[in-house]
Design goal:
This protein is an alpha+beta fold. It folds into four domains: about 120 residues, no CATH class; about 60 residues, no CATH class; about 60 residues, Arc Repressor Mutant, subunit A; about 110 residues, no CATH class. The chain is about 35% helix and about 25% strand. It is built from 15 helices and 16 strands. The protein has a five-stranded mixed β-sheet, covered by helices on one side. Strands 8-10-9 form a three-stranded antiparallel β-sheet. The relative contact order is 0.07. It holds the Pfam family Dcc1. This is Sister chromatid cohesion protein DCC1.
């Protein structure tokens, strides 16, 4: 339409019973540009930290495959993306001056004709979320590495994954993915991330613990160089080093020699897994005896080494223990609780904690999760938790 004059503006203000003296002298007259449409632009609300990332020239990435809810990742954090609707239409006006800018620039013409370039009724809201890392292990477990002599590796039709591949498939930031690869003891073989097949891991670990035993080394001072010299004829040296990194902490002595301090708990845990995975249920007392006999000399087995790996059934006679790995349970909160309550109807907080600990969002406690997904009752003076909904 035609450009408005000051007189028309004043007449409109009068009709609207607004006092011009209380308003800034500058008036924006808005008109829709020919191209102004919804859906051309998306608005994203960023917290100051993320804004700073972009301003510093770093990028934010949206990750997810077609069937997944999109997440946005910075270098080290992951955010859920949700659409927030607004009751007020949001207008995009290029070069629009804010009241502060107009006050500073008093001389500006008091009628400003602005064209609306686009509009929106919603924007994307970000909420910090747990990185979705279960899939990482799942992908790598499709084709675990069974060692250099494995025939399977030559003929395997499964995909292998580089860091780049994982960044495009896993809904987590780069730092979260690289950290998780360490947590699950993955290693890079010929440029691809692999997980060592459990039996192969145990074979390597066994070589190392037998060597420690025969050389009478202290478990806190295992020399890398001698390990590689002694075991290099049995297995590739990078595999020997990988198993030491997986089950020990690397350090240098004063002369710059590399040593490893072996993780007692992790080694005891792995040996327990080896014993338990061949039995459906194991009498607890019998298991504890065999387990202690199976670990390297000088190590002490304790049931709390098995958190999130095995569950003791105190209600059966005799008491039993069986394998229940937290990484095999669903990632979704409700599905996780459903599957736990189908395994056991009533749980104590001590027993269930290792199986839900990883679901806790930032600053959330296990107690808060239990309040939401379970109901509590007293059983023989002990607080127990059961399902809020009938388990099919």
């Amino acid at each position: 339409g035609a450009m408005r004059s000051r007189a028309e503006v004043d007449a409109t203000l009068q009709t609207a019973k607004l006092n011009a003296a209380e308003l800034l002298p500058a008036v924006h007259c808005l008109s829709f540009g020919a191209q102004a449409g919804a859906g051309e632009c998306c608005l994203l609300q960023l917290e100051p930290g993320l804004c700073a990332e972009l301003e510093a020239g770093r990028s934010l990435v949206i990750r997810g495959e077609k069937d997944e809810q999109a997440v946005l990742c910075s270098k080290d954090k992951t955010y859920d993306m949700k659409i927030a609707d607004t009751s007020n239409m949001l207008l995009f006006i290029p070069g629009c001056k804010t009241p502060e800018q107009l006050k500073a620039d008093q001389a500006s013409c008091n009628i400003i004709h602005s064209q609306i370039a686009g509009f929106s009724n919603n924007y994307w809201e970000l909420r910090r979320c747990r990185p979705k890392l279960k899939k990482l292990r799942k992908l790598l477990m499709e084709d675990p590495y069974e060692g250099p002599d494995s025939q399977k590796d030559q003929t395997s039709t499964f995909s292998k994954y580089t860091t780049e591949d994982l960044l495009s498939l896993i809904q987590a930031s780069e730092e979260e993915i690289l950290h998780q690869l360490q947590v699950i003891d993955a290693c890079k073989i010929e440029g691809y991330w692999r997980i060592l097949e459990f039996d192969y891991q145990m074979k390597l670990l066994n070589h190392v613990t037998q060597l420690i035993d025969s050389e009478s080394w202290s478990l806190s001072k295992v020399p890398l160089r001698t390990c590689l010299e002694e075991l290099g004829s049995l297995e590739p040296t990078e595999m020997i080093e990988h198993i030491l990194l997986s089950y020990g902490r690397k350090y240098f002595d004063d002369a710059g020699e590399v040593y490893f301090e072996m993780h007692e708990d992790k080694i005891c845990r792995a040996i327990a897994q080896m014993l338990l995975q061949n039995a459906v249920k194991f009498s607890l007392s019998e298991f504890q005896e065999v387990w202690q006999q199976s670990v390297p000399e000088g190590m002490t087995t304790r049931l709390d080494q098995l958190k999130g790996l095995a569950l003791v059934d105190r209600s059966s006679t005799p008491e039993t223990i069986f394998l229940l790995k937290v990484e095999d349970l669903p990632e979704d909160n409700q599905e996780r609780f459903n599957s736990l309550f189908s395994i056991r109807e009533k749980w104590t907080e001590v027993d269930i904690t290792p199986y839900i600990q990883d679901l806790c969002a930032e600053k959330q406690t296990v107690g808060a999760l239990l309040t939401k997904y379970a109901r509590s009752s007293m059983q023989n003076g002990v607080k127990v938790y059961n399902s809020r909904r009938p388990i099919s």
